[in-house]
Specification:
The protein has helices at 5-128, 138-145. It is an all-alpha fold.
Length: 146
């Protein structure tokens, strides 16, 4: 069956609204495609930014690891210092005890020396005749007895 020109015009008349609709859909799809291209560009820029942020964070992580290592060393040193300070405090307490003992002995010796000095002064006075106890010579005592 051969189509006549009227048949072709009728088919063209039927296809024209479909064609117009498809052109509208094509225009809308072009708009959607443009929007998706802009979104894709934005996503590419965001991806670049995120890559730069990731690089910065990697460098920061490396620096923080270095700081963490330094803090660990400082903490170890601080532990040693605390241990040494504790030992020094114990030694200081022991020295205080020993100094108190030395002070007690020195005070005792000083008191003993004062007492001995006082007695020697009394003895000297006594020997010099200034004593409250009269000393009579041996010969005087004999004359009275006679």
């Amino acid at each position: 069956m051969a189509l006549t020109s009227n048949d072709l015009q009728a088919i063209q008349g039927l296809l024209q609204p479909i064609h117009i609709r498809l052109d509208g859909i094509d225009n809308r799809l072009d708009g959607i495609d443009d929007r998706l291209d802009r979104i894709d560009d934005r996503l590419d820029r965001m991806d670049d930014r995120l890559d730069r942020i990731d690089d910065r964070l990697d460098r920061m992580d490396d620096r923080l690891d270095g700081m963490d290592n330094r803090f660990d060393r400082i903490e170890n040193r601080l532990d040693r210092v605390e241990s040494e300070v504790s030992s020094l405090k114990n030694g200081q307490l022991e020295m205080r005890k020993e100094l108190k003992e030395v002070d007690r002995k020195v005070t005792g010796t000083y008191d003993l020396a004062l007492e001995a000095w006082g007695k020697s002064t009394e003895n000297r006075r006594w020997l010099e005749g200034e004593s409250t106890f009269p000393i009579k010579s041996f010969s005087e005592g004999n004359t009275r007895a006679r």
